[in-house]
Design a protein that fits this description.
Distance between the termini: 73 Å
Radius of gyration: 24 Å
Strand content: 5-15%
Bound molecules: nickel (II) ion
Structural class: alpha+beta
Number of domains: 2
Strand order of the largest sheet: 3-4-7-8
Oligomer: single chain
Number of strands: 9
CATH class of the largest domain: Mainly Alpha
Largest sheet: 4 strands, mixed
CATH superfamily of the largest domain: Hypothetical protein af1432
CATH architecture of the largest domain: Orthogonal Bundle
CATH topology of the largest domain: Hypothetical protein af1432
Helix content: 40-55%
């Protein structure tokens, strides 16, 4: 009996507020959870800056990863009726991919990636295949095993059904984060009957499909995504926090590049500023490290860096107004001139943010980034794309509503410290 078949003497369980329990029998899974790269996910929040709006949203990528694993484990171990018996190695590849799919996320993922031009998916691959503890465990299964897990996550694995469990329009990843994010934010959206969906999921040739009798459960799932999208993920105030976070990092990078002498050397960031980082530098980062620097930067001589850092830590966020980039381009230019005259750098204090830059979609039938649409399996076994049967899904599918906002420090403008502030403020609110 090899490592891949090794079971723990006693099953381990993690108490989980969403799935009640997460069950671990496989030694490989247990060993992966114990690695430093996986434990690091405890120190990275699932929803970035959202906790500044929904204070419950402190949950980590660690628990989301366990949740995705648990959903896939249930699908496999409960039979997934109709699929031929799972081969032991394929079962393990699928479980590992579920557990490790978000392994490369960094602190405040979206903002951090944006400023330093990084890609968490690339880091997931690097951690799986590089000189890491996770890689050492996976290699104990077989030499090819780390690559197989990486291929499932990268969606290049030959068995597309396996890929679709972790990455499709109705996959374990989304089913977990919707419920988990709803639970921790405390909103009443985001709930749907996952047990029912798992019961009606059927294996088709290259993806999981849903028995047509389960259509309404899937409608609920898609609606919950739609509502979470606008109520939580695109919340204009958490976007304000993200705008400030990005600007802090931009400012620190700019200062570094122009030879500014920091009071405390930004050791953890230096290789990122220079674009000379390696995997170890990346693994060493987490949200605690980032906010520690922000804390130090509140004492910096550079007033932009110190002000923005303090704004982020103390939640003195920017206010926003709706903005139409096409129609209000001139107005933005005028505002920029006024900001400069008032001694406020518009690069940092007047920011347009567009929701379409954010990586969420609720439902688009078969469009873009190779996500297959959701298919219903009709009683005669024919497959039908869900928006052709469901009026509810049809009504919201394929719509990409972009929403632009203009962010600015209203609190500062209202102090009247500069005679131009009033003019700016009035122009912003016109
Ligand atoms: Ni995920």
């Amino acid at each position: 009996m090899g490592y891949k078949n090794e079971k723990l003497k006693e099953e381990k369980v993690f108490k989980d507020p969403v799935h009640r329990y997460v069950h671990v029998r496989d030694k490989v899974i247990w060993d992966i959870i114990g690695t430093r790269e996986f434990q690091r996910l405890r120190r990275i929040r699932q929803l970035g800056t959202t906790y500044l709006v929904f204070h419950g949203a402190e949950h980590s990528r660690f628990q989301h990863s366990l949740g995705v694993y648990e959903i896939v484990r249930r699908i496999i171990d409960d039979g997934f009726s109709g699929r031929p018996e799972w081969d032991e190695e394929e079962r393990l590849v699928t479980l590992c991919a579920a557990l490790l799919h978000d392994l490369g996320h960094g602190p405040f993922s979206h903002a951090f990636e944006n400023v330093f031009d990084l890609d968490h998916e690339e880091f997931t691959q690097k951690i799986l295949l590089g000189a890491t503890e996770v890689n050492a465990i996976l290699r104990k299964v077989s030499d090819q095993f780390p690559q197989k897990v990486a291929d499932v996550i990268d969606k290049t694995y030959p068995d597309k059904l396996v890929v679709s469990l972790i990455s499709s329009q109705i996959d374990a990843d989304r089913m977990d984060y919707l419920q988990r994010d709803a639970y921790y934010t405390g909103v009443s959206y985001g709930h749907f009957d996952m047990e029912r969906i798992l019961r009606v999921m059927r294996p088709a040739e290259d993806q999981a499909v849903v028995k047509s009798s389960g259509m309404h459960a899937v409608e609920d799932y898609i609606m919950s995504r739609y509502q979470m999208y606008w109520q939580v993920y695109f919340h204009p105030v958490s976007r304000s926090a993200e705008v400030i976070l990005k600007k802090v990092l931009h400012r620190a990078k700019y200062l570094y590049e122009t030879g500014y002498q920091f009071g405390q050397a930004p050791v953890h960031f230096e290789t990122f500023f220079k674009k000379e980082y390696d995997l170890e530098d990346y693994i060493a980062l987490d949200e605690g490290v980032v906010t520690t620097y922000f804390q130090m930067w509140t004492k910096e001589q550079d007033t932009i860096l110190s002000d923005l850092s303090a704004r982020f830590l103390n939640r003195r966020l920017f206010q926003y107004v709706e903005f139409n980039p096409a129609a209000e381009y001139k107005k933005l230019q005028q505002l920029e001139v006024l900001f400069n005259q008032a001694g406020l750098d518009p690069e940092y204090y007047l920011v347009v943010d567009s929701s379409s830059d954010l990586p969420y979609d609720f439902y688009r039938p078969g469009e873009e980034n190779e996500r297959l649409p959701i298919f219903l399996q009709m009683p005669n076994k024919e497959l039908r794309e869900i928006s052709r049967s469901s009026d509810v899904v049809d009504a919201i599918s394929g719509k990409r509503r972009t929403d632009h906002k203009l962010y600015f420090p209203e609190d500062l403008l209202q102090t009247g410290e500069n005679p131009l502030y009033k003019e700016i403020y009035e122009m912003l609110n016109k």
